[in-house]
């Protein structure tokens, strides 16, 4: 790990300004992804701005009937919150499907949104990777691609977004709140937060330089039955081959989002209108235009079967 400097500010704008004004600076929260990347010298920040004293660890009701989740709320605290378990069960289930208990005790809400891809070529610094070094090329294209993306990928990158919690947040139409070093605040719909890779896969979100996530806001509860199905190569501590988050209403309508298949949490609202016709109709629309490889083409029928399982469970058939 290379040397770096460190500071621990106590107000939001100072923290944002400390990163915005210093090229090579990064925010540090739970560190469950960043520190690993630093040890491998994939991330080489020159300065760390520790945000743990900023008071962003509360879960509070909003005036609109939703919840505001502070950026530093741990995954463990969020999954255990009685309001989340009662009204946003898909979120609690997605969190519990990811990582070990030890990691969930440290991982934060904002950090989970910013988790970087787990593509093996990204982690192997001997291999070319456009995400790690723009313009280097992509060893994953033509390489081992079983875990990689089938849709919203590009000729520059076929990695997938690795998280579980953000799949549920996309399903719930969460909003990401931020503050900049200038004091400007933004509310970013999560549908606009993560980017498709395109030709600049190293730019993963719509955050501006130095912009600090302060909270994630959930709208009022949707009702219905909540489910999160994660299919992986082993039962514990593995990233999703395919995951499906869903809220199904008593009349068979609902919402669906997929993980492990795209550069970002994957939700196609037009496909949700087909839920009463069954899983195959939904995934045919959701994955229209997919470009799988020979190694990962199985992900699309796997997504269909995972969604079919959820539909059966929510109807009481399984």
TrEMBL record:
Listed InterPro entries: CO_DH_flav_C, CO_DH_flav_C_dom_sf, Diverse_Substr_Oxidored, FAD-bd_PCMH, FAD-bd_PCMH-like_sf, FAD-bd_PCMH_sub1, FAD-bd_PCMH_sub2, Mopterin_DH_FAD-bd
Stretch forming the signal peptide:
none
Q: Where are the transmembrane segments?
A: none
Indicate the segments forming the FAD-binding PCMH-type domain, all copies: 1-223
Q: From what superkingdom does this record's organism come?
A: Bacteria
Q: Which GO terms describe its molecular function?
A: FAD binding; oxidoreductase activity
Pfam families tied to this protein: CO_deh_flav_C, FAD_binding_5
Q: Provide this UniProt record's keywords sorted from A to Z.
A: FAD, Flavoprotein
PANTHER family from the UniProt entry: ALDEHYDE OXIDOREDUCTASE FAD-BINDING SUBUNIT PAOB (PTHR42659:SF5), XANTHINE DEHYDROGENASE SUBUNIT C-RELATED (PTHR42659)
Name the record gives this protein: Molybdopterin dehydrogenase
Q: Which organism is it from?
A: Phreatobacter cathodiphilus
